[in-house]
C-alpha cells in the first residue's frame, strides 16, 4: 500500500451520528436512561451536540433521505424509532447557535433538489455557523423518494451520478459567484459591495441550469466541504473529484485499507492530494464498566424486540453462518458438531466474525448482542476495548477516522467521558480543535468556487 496510508504522526478524525436523537439501536428509546421524546426535543438534541463538542469531536453527521424512513430505512415505526431526524437544515441551525467549534455535516440529495436553493441554504448555514458546515452529497436511489417528487420514474444509476456531478458543479459555481473581496460595507464611501467581483453563474448542464449569482459572501472557510457516502465505482469517482470526507462501511482492517487506498487514488487521479480526502469508517459501540455490563445492556435491547423481529434476526444469522438455528436453544453454545459446520456466507462481509464467535462457543443470542448483523462493526465492552479497536484500525492505516454510532443517547456521554481521554493519552486523538472551521478540523485546503478536475 502507498505511504499515504501510513498514519504515523497523524491524529484520527471523528464524526458523530446522532441518528434521530436516540442512537444507532432503534430500540434504545425504551432504555431507562433514554429520553423517549428526543425525536422532537430540539433542546436535548442540542445538548448532545454540546457534549460531543466537549469531546472535541470534529463534526456531527446527519444521515437523511427526503422520504419517510423508519429503522433500517423501513416505514414501520410502531415500535422502533425513525432512522432520520427532523429536517436537517433546521436541526443544524439550532445546533450552530448553541456551539462554537464542532462541524455540522448535512445530507442533501443531488437528485431531488435544485442547485440555487441548495447552494443558498448551505451557504447561509455556513455563514450562520462561522464556517462549520459540510454537505454530504448523495444520489438518493429509492422509489419512495421518487414518488415524493412527482410521477417521474427513478433515474438509473448512471443518470443519477451524472446529475450528481452537475449538481456539485452548479452549487460550487454558485458559491463562488460573490467575489471573496466583494463585500465592502463601507459607511464612509457608501459602497456596500463591489459589483465587479459579483458574476453570474451561467451554469448550463444536461440536467441542471442556473444563471444568477448567489448574493452571499465567502465564509471563513470559503465554502462548505463536500462529503460522499457511496462505495460504487460511480461513488468513488464522485468522491475523488469533489469530496473532503467519505463515509465508509468496511468490516475488516484489510477491507478498510483497500477501500481507503481506492478513494485516495481517485483523489490523486483528479489532481488532488491524497490527504485532501478523509475516510470515516462507520463504527458502533456499547460501553460498560465490564464486558458483562455492556452485554446486559445489549441483551436488554434484544429483549425489547417482538418475537417476530427476534426470530427474523435468528434466521438471518442462520444464513450468515450456514447453520439452521431453528429449534436450538439460542441462549446456549451450539453443539461442537454444528460449530464445526459453521461457514461464512461468501457474499456477506459480516459473516466471518459471526462464525468466529459461534466457533468460540458464544450462544447465538449473545452473538446477535455483539452486533454480528449490524450495519457497522460493533464493540461491546469497556472504554478500553473501544479505544483498542479504534487504535488498531487507525495504526494499521485502515482509516483516517471513524463515524461514531453510539447505541443510545448515553453512549455519547460515555464516549466523551471515558474513551476520549484514553485516545488522547495514547497520542492518536487531538486535545483541541485545530481551528474554527470544518476545513481546518479536517485538514483540507480552503476552497472558493468550482475547482476543475485535472482528470
From TrEMBL:
Keywords: Flavoprotein, FMN, Monooxygenase, Oxidoreductase. The keyword 4Fe-4S does not apply. FMN binds at residues 64, 107, 161, 232. Residues 38-399 form the Luciferase-like domain. GO terms for molecular function: monooxygenase activity; oxidoreductase activity, acting on paired donors, with incorporation or reduction of molecular oxygen. It holds the Pfam family Bac_luciferase. It comes from the Bacteria. PANTHER family: ALKANESULFONATE MONOOXYGENASE-RELATED, C2H2 FINGER DOMAIN TRANSCRIPTION FACTOR (EUROFUNG)-RELATED. Belongs to the NtaA/SnaA/DszA monooxygenase family. This is LLM class flavin-dependent oxidoreductase. It comes from Neisseria weixii.
Amino acid at each position: 500500500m502507498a505511504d499515504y496510508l501510513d498514519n504515523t504522526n497523524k491524529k484520527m478524525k471523528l464524526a458523530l451520528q446522532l441518528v434521530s436523537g436516540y442512537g444507532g439501536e432503534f430500540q434504545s428509546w425504551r432504555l431507562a436512561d433514554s429520553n423517549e421524546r428526543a425525536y422532537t426535543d430540539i433542546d436535548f438534541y442540542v445538548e448532545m451536540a454540546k457534549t460531543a463538542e466537549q469531546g472535541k469531536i470534529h463534526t456531527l453527521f446527519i444521515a437523511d433521505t427526503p422520504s419517510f424512513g423508519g429503522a433500517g430505512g423501513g416505514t414501520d415505526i410502531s415500535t422502533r424509532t425513525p432512522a432520520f431526524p427532523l429536517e436537517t437544515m433546521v436541526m443544524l441551525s439550532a445546533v450552530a447557535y448553541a456551539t462554537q467549534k464542532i462541524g455540522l455535516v448535512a445530507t442533501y440529495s443531488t437528485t431531488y433538489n435544485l442547485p440555487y436553493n441548495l447552494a443558498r441554504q448551505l451557504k447561509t448555514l455556513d455563514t450562520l455557523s462561522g464556517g462549520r458546515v459540510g454537505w454530504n452529497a448523495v444520489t438518493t436511489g429509492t422509489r419512495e423518494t421518487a414518488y415524493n417528487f412527482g410521477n417521474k420514474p427513478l433515474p438509473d444509476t448512471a443518470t443519477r451520478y451524472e446529475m450528481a456531478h452537475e449538481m456539485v458543479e452548479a452549487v460550487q459555481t454558485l458559491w463562488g459567484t460573490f467575489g471573496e473581496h466583494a463585500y465592502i460595507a463601507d459607511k464612509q464611501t457608501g459602497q456596500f459591495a463591489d459589483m465587479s467581483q459579483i458574476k453570474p453563474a451561467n451554469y448550463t448542464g444536461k440536467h441542471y441550469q442556473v444563471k444568477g449569482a448567489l448574493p452571499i459572501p465567502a465564509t471563513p472557510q470559503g465554502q462548505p466541504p463536500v462529503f460522499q457516502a457511496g462505495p460504487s465505482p460511480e461513488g468513488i469517482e464522485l468522491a475523488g473529484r469533489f469530496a473532503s470526507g467519505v463515509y465508509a462501511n468496511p468490516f475488516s482492517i484489510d477491507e478498510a485499507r483497500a477501500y481507503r487506498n481506492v478513494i485516495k487514488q481517485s483523489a490523486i487521479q483528479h489532481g488532488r492530494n491524497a490527504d485532501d480526502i478523509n475516510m470515516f469508517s462507520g463504527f458502533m459501540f456499547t460501553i460498560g464498566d465490564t464486558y458483562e455490563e455492556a452485554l446486559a445492556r445489549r441483551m436488554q435491547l434484544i429483549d425489547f424486540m417482538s418475537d417476530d423481529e427476534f426470530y427474523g434476526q435468528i434466521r438471518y444469522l442462520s444464513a450468515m453462518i450456514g447453520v439452521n438455528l431453528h429449534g436450538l436453544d439460542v441462549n446456549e453454545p451450539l453443539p461442537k458438531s454444528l460449530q464445526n459446520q459453521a461457514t461464512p456466507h461468501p457474499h456477506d462481509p459480516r459473516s466471518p466474525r459471526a462464525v468466529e464467535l459461534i466457533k468460540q462457543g458464544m450462544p447465538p443470542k449473545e452473538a446477535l448482542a455483539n452486533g454480528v448483523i449490524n450495519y457497522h462493526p460493533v464493540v461491546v465492552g469497556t472504554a478500553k476495548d473501544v479505544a483498542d479497536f479504534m487504535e488498531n484500525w487507525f495504526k494499521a492505516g485502515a482509516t483516517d477516522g471513524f463515524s461514531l454510532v453510539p447505541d443510545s443517547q448515553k453512549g455519547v456521554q460515555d464516549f466523551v467521558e471515558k474513551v476520549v481521554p484514553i485516545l488522547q493519552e495514547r497520542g492518536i486523538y487531538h486535545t483541541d480543535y485545530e481551528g474554527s472551521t470544518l476545513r481546518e478540523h479536517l485538514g483540507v485546503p480552503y476552497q472558493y468556487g468550482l475547482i476543475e478536475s485535472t482528470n
